[in-house]
Amino acid sequence: MPQDNTKARERCQPVLERLYHTVTARKGASPSVSHSARLMARGRSKIAQKFGEEAVECVIEAIHGDRKALISESADVLYHLIVMWVDAGIDPADVWAELERREGTSGIEEKASRPKPSV
Ligand SMILES: N=c1c2ncn([C@@H]3O[C@H](COP(=O)(O)OP(=O)(O)OP(=O)(O)O)[C@@H](O)[C@H]3O)c2ncn1[C@@H]1O[C@H](COP(=O)(O)O)[C@@H](O)[C@H]1O
Predict the structure, then answer these.
(1) What are the helix and strand counts (H, E) for the chain?
(2) pLDDT digits (tens, 9 = 90+) for 43-54
């Protein structure tokens, strides 16, 4: 049965939702007019590669401490992540729901609760 993500969708960032819908609408559009369509036409590996490159650029700007560049690279990362979600058939609301599920659980606590590997 599909998850009911209504509450998660209501609370998610509207701009990311709009971008998701725009990119979804670009599926199958001409690669000559849409960058999203061009990326999707090149396939999942290319999209993942571009996402990785943008993430590395974000890391570089974080280390340099250039706030403006980090904001710009962060936007590139989010755009490419959304193209990757659209291509993979992932609805952002599923991700918002996962983040909500994690709310209130400390990362330290969660890691400590993982089953210990048997040796
Ligand atoms: N947020 C973005 C966005 N961020 C970055 N980019 C584009 O991503 C490209 C990144 O350029 P690069 O040179 O790094 O990569 P590349 O052109 O794939 O080149 P190669 O690495 O393959 O050589 C540039 O063309 C940017 O303009 C974006 N393109 C589109 N959007 C959003 O997506 C919407 C739909 O865009 P289209 O699909 O182009 O209609 C737009 O209205 C925007 O809201």
Answers:
(1) 7, 0
(2) 999 999 999 999
